[in-house]
Amino acid sequence: MGEFELIRHYFAAAPCAQAGDGVALGIGDDCALLALPAGQQLAVSTDTLVAGVHFPDPADPFLLGQRALAVAASDLAAMGASPIGFTLALTLPSVAEGWLQPFAEGLNRMARHCGLSLIGGDTTRGPLSLTMTVFGGVPAGQALLRSGARPGDLLCVGGVLGDAAGALPLVLGQAQADEAIGAPLLAHYWSPSPQFGLGQALRGKATAAMDISDGLLADCGHIASASGVGLDIELGALPLSNALLGLLGREAAQTAALTGGDDYVLVFSLPGEHLAALRADGWDIHALGRVREGQGVRLLDAQGADITPVVRGYQHFRETP
Amino acid sequence: MGEFELIRHYFAAAPCAQAGDGVALGIGDDCALLALPAGQQLAVSTDTLVAGVHFPDPADPFLLGQRALAVAASDLAAMGASPIGFTLALTLPSVAEGWLQPFAEGLNRMARHCGLSLIGGDTTRGPLSLTMTVFGGVPAGQALLRSGARPGDLLCVGGVLGDAAGALPLVLGQAQADEAIGAPLLAHYWSPSPQFGLGQALRGKATAAMDISDGLLADCGHIASASGVGLDIELGALPLSNALLGLLGREAAQTAALTGGDDYVLVFSLPGEHLAALRADGWDIHALGRVREGQGVRLLDAQGADITPVVRGYQHFRETP
């Protein structure tokens, strides 16, 4: 048995490799087998994280395991899917038990948190990178797409924005912060929580949804484009954490919220009549704008004036039509 | 739009991205959606190919696109699954149209050959590697596992063995051969044909199956271990191509057939009563041994004597229990 074959056995013994709901056959054969309840469709998404590109190299392996799975799983949540399982394709320069053990622990922790079972994968030698493919179930016809936003809908997000972008200089060791400020931001970066519950609660209510990975403006641009509508965001309505405000001040915190990636909260269009009931059910939803006729994403001040041209200076926004 | 976002659009426009049977939603949203007919399970497998490890670097991008998908799809065939789709996670050092265009053509060609639709993926910057996750459908309870081989079954393979191993020195430029010998070997290496038809024909007949990726002996070791049986292989019964015999001579060709990887033909255990009917249906099946009580894989000569100890000299076999 070669050393990379050993890793396979290592992960096959991990707690997250215990087959859960929807998994008819887990790790160990040519394929895993998934069994969906009647009337369900399978949601599938793939994400690759490359060392030095998508996370610092070296990175804490426990935190990396947590974060890699959360990033991938967030796409399932954004479809309104229920979690089933995931595959892990892990490429490593060498086999180091001191790395694999905490990595698997971080992976296990997030898998348990999300309710995802490890169903298969591949382990190979090469420059460090991870590809996760995640699987969820969603009732046929009820998946939350990007393409259904309608003029008049509210534009909402499922949590505060910009924390991960605020954390990045801390992650990279380019800045320091007091524990009270740094800890919550770093937690948001390293351990984002895929919003499965919210996504499922939005089925049949939200007209479009996605998770924020590239930044609010860039991702709103995707919804606007897929739905054939325009989106207006009120700058003052951006939900910002006290930690982010404490680190950056209001103006830079707003920029982080608009343009920073890696938030992994849901952004969605919602007919206004659903807002109160969702909030009454305890969902931390923030309305920050409206869907309108037209195209593109505009920023408005509190008086409704278009201030898009004066809030610039970052690549994603410039590139969004 | 960033350059890697452009690649996504590039692949989304590829012919293989046209949604086929079982694909309810293809590329472009947070997830793809698969819809299985009632009574079917979804077979899932993931394979990573790293440049310089699993294929030469540089490699012809057309051939690489073909081969990468075939390698991954072969796991579906080995389960007896019908093809549905695949995701492509492509990590590239830079964006070069001269590379992407032929790569996509090779991918498209194999996707069409297999009947697989590209349903999603990710494109990232980093050292060249590819991770494919493939999806197929199989009637519940009819998947071909590794674990059902029973003493008395025939041990069979679905085609000639060792051609890919024979081709490797040619692929790496370490050896040369006449066109008549080199061309078929290189074709086998660069464009293996996943045995979907055979896999489906074996449903309800073969008691265990897998595809040969690590080499006949190593992979037979997996079946023996998963099934709790021993396997006997008759050295003289190995199916060898004329090209391989011409390149290596009989003894080295047998070693290539036993220990060379990358053949991607099916190896399976089959109750003897099914052999004639399958052959009558046109399947090129070679019986090369028997399942027995016990454990491990033995090599026998034509008189049935155990010659395992004298046919050695390669890592996989030594490592197989």
List keywords for this structure.
Phosphoribosyl-aminoimidazole Synthetase, Chain A, domain 2; 321 residues; four-stranded mixed sheet; homodimer; 11 helices; 2 domains; 60s Ribosomal Protein L30, Chain: A; six-stranded mixed sheet; alpha+beta; 36% helix; disordered C terminus
What can you see in these coordinates?
Two copies of one chain form a homodimer. Chain A contains eleven helices and twelve strands. In chain A, the strands form three sheets. A six-stranded mixed sheet of chain A has the order 8-10-7-11-9-12. Chain A has two domains: 3-139, PurM-like, N-terminal domain (60s Ribosomal Protein L30, Chain: A, 2-Layer Sandwich), CATH 3.30.1330.10; 154-319, Alpha-Beta Complex (Phosphoribosyl-aminoimidazole Synthetase, Chain A, domain 2). The longest helix of chain A has 18 residues, at 61-78. Chain A starts with a helix and ends with a helix. Chain A is 36% helix and 24% strand. With 321 residues, chain A is an alpha+beta fold. The radius of gyration of chain A is 20 Å and the shape is globular. In chain A, strand 1 (23-25) and strand 2 (32-34) form a beta hairpin. The interface between A and B is large, with 62 and 62 residues.
Domain module tally of chain A: 2
Rounded to an integer in angstroms, the radius of gyration calculated over CA atoms of chain A is 20 Å
Measured as a percent range, the helix fraction of chain A is: 25-40%
CATH class of the largest domain in chain A: Alpha Beta
> Roughly how many Å apart are the termini of chain A?
53 Å
Strand arrangement in the largest pleated sheet of chain A: 8-10-7-11-9-12
Give the biggest sheet of chain A: 6 strands, mixed
Number of strands of chain A: 12
**CATH level-3 fold name of the largest domain in chain A:** Phosphoribosyl-aminoimidazole Synthetase, Chain A, domain 2
What is the residue-averaged pLDDT of chain A?
A: 92
What is the element string of chain A, with H for helices and E for strands? HEEEHEHEEEHHHEHEHHEHEEH
CATH 4th-level superfamily of the largest domain in chain A: PurM-like C-terminal domain
Residues in β-strands, percent of chain A = 15-25%
Query: Number of DSSP helices of chain A?
Result: 11
Oligomer: homodimer
Structural class of chain A: alpha+beta
CATH architecture term of the largest domain in chain A? Alpha-Beta Complex
Global shape of chain A: globular
